[in-house]
Structures are given as structure tokens and as C-alpha cells.
Amino acid sequence: MFVGRPAPCGVYRASDEVNEEEHLARLRQAAESLDLPARARSNATELFLTNVPDADRSKPAVAAAALYAGALVAGAERPQTAVADAMGVTRLSVQQHWKELLEDAGFDAPQW
Prior knowledge:
Blueprint: H1 14-19, H2 21-33, H3 38-49, H4 59-73, H5 80-87, H6 91-104
Helix pairs in contact: 2-3, 2-4, 3-4, 4-5, 4-6, 5-6
């Protein structure tokens, strides 16, 4: 289980949820397929919305990394491969982004 600070609390505009609905829907579907608890889903949504990249092509990878990191913070860790498969990205995409998302949210990312 990941031990860190309280759940991420970022700042984003309400319009971000509307603008990123496609990626949020994908995130919700993946979270459901991975049987993640509500806290993990909420963490993932906040991590994604507070770190939405400008480039559209990067958004699926960041959403997948947010889902992995959000689950980790909630104590509901899933394998990177399972999260990547559920989100339709590569494991490398998750691996490249999740620690940065945690650190940007104020967590100390594990060094493994």
C-alpha cells in the first residue's frame, strides 16, 4: 500500500471536465473494468484534470498514468500492464508519467 500525503487536491476549471469528457469517460470505464474503488477513481480524475497536457496525443497516456497513480494512492494498486491495457496505451506510457503526476500533486513517489 502506498503511504503518502492526503488525496490529491488540484485546481482545475469546471470547463476542463467538459473539454476532457472523452478521456474522463475512458478513465471511468477502465477504472470499472479494473474494479477500482471510488477513492481511486476520484484521485485519478483530479490527477488527470490538474495535469492535462496540451498535446491531444499525450492525453491518453497521462490519463492512464493518473489512473495508475490514483489507485496507488488509494491503496488499490493494479499492475501497470493491466492499467495500460484497460486504457488502450502501452505500459511504457504509464511508466513514463505516473511518478511525475504524484510529485506534482505533492506526494513523494516511491523509488522502485
